[in-house]
Design a protein that fits this description.
The chain is of the alpha/beta class. It has a five-stranded parallel β-sheet. Helix 5 crosses helix 6.
Length: about 180
């Protein structure tokens, strides 16, 4: 089963030997966090409060190694903005998002965002999804992608990240039930 899965996604374990992805070897605790989380975002000031969010997690269960930031729910599909537009629409836009990523990095926490290949009814990104996603992740300094509902991440995403010269860790969401036996 493992061999078949690795062939299916064109797996190459040497990608995780490169220095920029060494963090994946010791990232054990990774919550999924909605951008509306009141420990992460203060609506009164209109600012992200990364230190407050991380301090809370440190006090409750010893901290985290990485975080999956979820900006799409519950708004994706309300208008024509796509999943990447939702990241760009976060407070502060493309000036604010790289700063919040840098704030996590300053505390030693890696940042991932989701990719939703089922996002077909919104605005076309104007290029292939792998290229569009890799470019935005490089622009904001993100460390990886979570493949929402995906059983694997195709080689095209790795290649797009390599083309951007911004290696990304890729994380499929789950194993198909019929194959998990």
């Amino acid at each position: 089963w493992r061999t078949e899965r690795r062939i299916h996604i064109c797996y190459d374990g040497s990608r995780y030997d490169i220095p920029a992805l060494q963090w994946t070897q010791s990232s054990y605790i990774q919550p999924q966090m909605m951008v509306e989380d009141r420990y992460f975002y203060d609506p009164a000031s209109g600012k992200y409060t990364v230190d407050r969010y991380l301090d809370d997690l440190q006090s409750r269960y010893g901290g985290i190694d990485s975080v999956l930031i979820w900006p799409t729910y519950p708004n994706l599909g309300i208008d024509d903005r796509n999943q990447l537009d939702m990241i760009r629409s976060m407070q502060g836009g493309l000036a604010g998002v790289p700063k919040l990523v840098a704030d996590f990095h300053r505390r030693g926490v890696r940042v991932l965002f989701p990719m939703m290949m089922w996002d077909q009814g919104t605005r076309d990104p104007g290029q292939s999804w792998p290229k569009a996603i890799a470019h935005l992740m490089a622009e904001i300094g993100a460390d990886g992608i979570n493949g929402d509902t995906q059983h694997g991440v195709s080689l095209a995403f790795f290649q797009a990240a390599e083309h951007e010269r911004h290696p990304l860790a890729f994380q499929p969401e789950h194993i198909p039930y019929d194959e998990a036996v």
